[in-house]
Amino acid sequence: MTKRDYYEILGVGKDASVDEIKKTYRKLAMKYHPDRVAPEKRKEAEEQFKEISEAYAVLSDEHKRAQYDRFGHAGINNQYSSEDIFRGADFGSIFEDLGFGGGIFEDIFSGFGSRRRQGPRRGADLEYELPLSLEEAAGGIEKTINIRRGENCSECGGEGAQPGTKKTTCTVCRGAGQVGQSAGFFTIARTCDTCHGEGTIIQKPCKSCRGQGKVSVERKINVKVPAGVDSGSHLRVRGEGEAGAKGGPRGDLYILIRLKAHDTFERHQNDVYCTVGVTFVQAALGTEIEVPTLYKEKIKMNIPTGTQSENVFRISGKGFADLRGYGKGDQYVKVHVKVPTDLSGQQKKLLMEFAQLSGEDVRNETITEKIKKAFK
Question: DSSP code of 109?
Fold first, then answer.
């Protein structure tokens, strides 16, 4: 069966804020919580409650929401298991406010309807914020970054136990990693507090990783940044996240792009804007000037006769590349006519003559004349 759109389920727009999504979910949770409906409607309410909870878990999380917006349900299902979808969502505070008991419901949604996986587990994803200049974003670039991530301990092979020793089965959960508990209409499998969900106990921890199975290591990663990225873009580098557990694959590394402010250019979607100055003589008579671009080149641009200050001209194809392959944006150049401030006597005389020929009244009033005018 095809899943419904998460935004449609909650009844919010794609530009909805996290606060708006949380507020909407609270209202729906009050409406569909099975403990608040008649017994004969509980089955239907339970399914609706799970549906809105899954939508909230995805849309309230920055990374999950970005994956969903870009790839739809496939982006979520390919990266998260049924229990991982709910992991990290702020159900606790919501249900405490609603009077349902926060702690118990956080356990429900950290492992919704499933036992903890005892086999290989995928490593966590990492995020790295990468600042770029507008020139780097326009042309694309390859960057080498340093990240710190968890890798399997070479001493114990990621097991956490001292070499030569073995883990023992947890006597509380008997190796299940979870203990059962009943709460309302749910059958809850809570994480075992003794083994923390692992199902085993380490009697002699590895000295190198202190029983964690992982050590923190700094690595250099090469990142290819395509031309056209903008602030807020996420680049996915597969397999460069945290190490997996029990032979599971690594997580992914997400590169968050942040564009730095520029002294000359401003970006507006795929277009770029700049301002250039010309003299009033150039603006009046017309000329040809060189205009800087983001691509380490200057382009000759014609200034027509009689150009006014704040006039804007377009240079086609000198903006940012569209990431979907729809060509490039344009560069818009605003002209600012510079008025000279230190004129020589000869220059003033010529300008006066020009003004008289143009029919302008440019009489040079004395201070006395200006005062008389002010008090008339």
Answer: H
